[in-house]
Design brief:
By secondary structure, the protein is α/β, with parallel strands linked by helices. The chain has one domain: Rossmann fold (3-Layer(aba) Sandwich), CATH 3.40.50.10420. It contains five helices and twelve strands. It has helices at 11-26, 29-44, 47-51, 68-76, 148-153, and strands spanning 54-56, 80-86, 92-96, 104-105, 111-112, 126-131, 134-136, 141-142, 159-163, 169-170, 184-186, 191-193.
């Protein structure tokens, strides 16, 4: 799939542009699946994954980069695993998941741990894996527009990792004071660490 470079670094424009690119990719299920496996594999062999005692993940919707390999590996590796639960006023917490079979549909129909599951308190040994529509080479990510991750990560002390397709990484995009830079971006063809 040939990708045209975006004509603007404006977030609204980029969100529309990369949503359209993502839609096209989703039509090629085999290619998307192969790219998703490569991205997840890069994260799983990374130092930050091996060093993390706790891994915070998202449950991917069909148009997001899959995380199922990471989820199953982290549970098998006896790491503490958390999945997000969206609350009122755009806030989000992570609750512990011990078995995939215990997940239930939550807000937006996304699978999440049941309400009685333990809330995770993140620390320096926590890896938070974030979804991204696109990223820039400075470590800023563009999400899907809810702002949940930027609010959650504002005081986060662990490692922030974005999953992004290589052809959705651009030199720079507009950022504002609430945007949180990633420590690392994992793509299907490279991994970029921020200084």
């Amino acid at each position: 799939m040939a990708v045209t470079n975006p004509a603007s670094t404006d977030k609204g424009y980029l969100r529309d542009f990369y949503r359209e690119q993502r839609q096209k990719l989703c039509e090629d299920i085999e290619r998307k699946s192969a790219l998703d496996v490569e991205i997840q594999t890069r994260l799983l062999i990374s130092h930050e994954y091996r060093a993390a005692a706790t891994v915070l993940l998202y449950m991917a919707r069909p148009y997001e980069i899959a995380t199922s390999l990471i989820l199953h590996a982290a549970l098998s590796n006896h790491k503490t695993v958390g999945l997000p639960v969206c609350l009122e006023e755009g806030k989000m917490i992570f609750r512990r998941v011990e078995k995939v079979s215990e997940l239930i549909p939550g807000k937006y129909g996304i699978l999440e741990p049941p309400a009685l599951s333990e809330a995770i308190i993140a620390d320096e040994d926590t890896l938070c894996v974030c979804p991204a529509l696109c990223c820039d080479m400075r470590g800023y990510r563009l999400g899907f527009g809810g702002g949940y991750y930027d609010r959650y990560l504002a005081d986060f002390k662990g490692v922030k990792a974005a999953l992004c397709y290589a052809d959705s990484v651009i030199p720079t995009m507009q950022d504002d004071e609430f945007d949180v830079r990633m420590n690392v971006i994992h793509t299907d063809s490279f991994t970029r660490y921020m200084k």
